[in-house]
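User: Fold this one for me? It's GntR family transcriptional regulator.
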Amino acid sequence: MRIPAHSVCTAIRDDIVAGVYERGGRLTEELLARRYGVSRVPVREALRTLEAEGFVVTRRHAGACVAEPTEQEAADLLEMRQLLEPLGASRAAQRRTDAHLKVLRGLVRLGQERARQGNSDDLRSLGGWFHETLAQASGSPALTSMLTQLRHKIAWMYAVDGPPDPVAYWAEHGAIADAVARGDGERARSLTALHTEQANAGLRLRFGSGADRAVRTDRVRNSQHPVNMPSLRH
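Assistant: Here's what I get for GntR family transcriptional regulator.
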């Protein structure tokens, strides 16, 4: 069975974000193909896509390597998210479907329930799904793609501290969903701008921290990510 390149791309990107591959480290086609249980062809295609996204660079005499973003590039990502997330929410208020709204409200209910229970692992995943759905509800594939890439890169470059008050944090998600449901684009925009600003304040740049390098090293030891499995995320 031929594994599609986009599946290999997702697997490599996820491992880069998780810190399995160090910044500046080489990404050889042979080793990647062996790791993910695929041929070199989809690996080569995946590396081209990841280079276009900014996760990989091609260096003379070294080939494909994990990119090494600067602190300024990392800061720019937060500024871009601060501009684009509110835009997506405003568009979602005008273009969302009933299906989008059903998913958003379902995620808010789950998030509020998990927040009361203090389940931080679930909250992080649910928050990601909420913002992914909100972006999709904007009705703009280009904006959705940009926001998805921003979230991947921010997760790669920054460590996340959980919100000090998860219940209040999920109340903010609920207010955004309500504004989207009412078709109130301005309120959806302003609520999302404040929510994004607060989320950005809880991020810590990973660069140069011995503690964070130790976390990444532990992830490398424990990481297993075969792509030729039916459960693969696309």
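One thing worth pointing out: The first strand starts at residue 56 and ends at 59.
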